Amino acid sequence: MNGRAERPRIPWLLMAGCIFSCAVFFYVARILQWEYTAKSWVKMSLFIGFPMAYWLADGRLRWQDILRRIFPVRPPWRRLIILAGAGLAIIILLNLLVEPICAFFKISSVMDEIKTRTHTNQEQMLKAMIYIPLVNALGEELFFRGFCFLELKDRGFPVLAYFFSGILFALYHLAIFQNWFSPFLLVLCLSALAGAGMILDRFVGRDRNILGVWLLHGLVNVAILSLSWRFIAS
Predict the structure, then answer these.
(1) Rounded to an integer, what distance in angstroms lies between the CA atom of residue 54 and that of residue 159?
(2) Does the reported pTM lie above 0.85?
(3) What angle do CA 71, 61, 208 make, to 5 degrees?
């Protein structure tokens, strides 16, 4: 023995599985161009199924531990209230600034493409405003924060955990974006998403669960969908 602590090994299998899951969803969404319901089933199967399979194979976490990454025994009520307030503020601000936002990001043309491609109407949008904040946001937060981030951090790679989960979270959105933005705006949006992902990582690293970021993520989705609702209703 040389007295030196053994350095932890980078969990390449975990990282490769996360990248592969996002790549499969990208292939289904952008190459095969499946319809929304089928894409959602694939995404939720990957984003929930792979972490569960990994945790069960690894054997370090019990079912109770996995559930507590979503629903803690003692929820951080004060932080939840703050995050809920932040999410509601985002909803109000986006709707107050809807005209300059639409002009800057050319949201009208984006909505035209979405409406033509998906035949979206108010009834379908209402369903989306329930499904996306509750189910879709849960799957993304469990995968990117509760799994990718916390697993890398717990294995002794906190810096890698922030960058890997944040950047992968941003790149995953390439499967969602169509030809919506110019190259400059696309880079700007991806950079903002990576930064937002790392901020959410910070909350999860402190709380050890995704309840708070799930709430905030869901409210941000409501804010974005509210703009879509206004466009479709007009």
Answers:
(1) 22
(2) yes
(3) 40
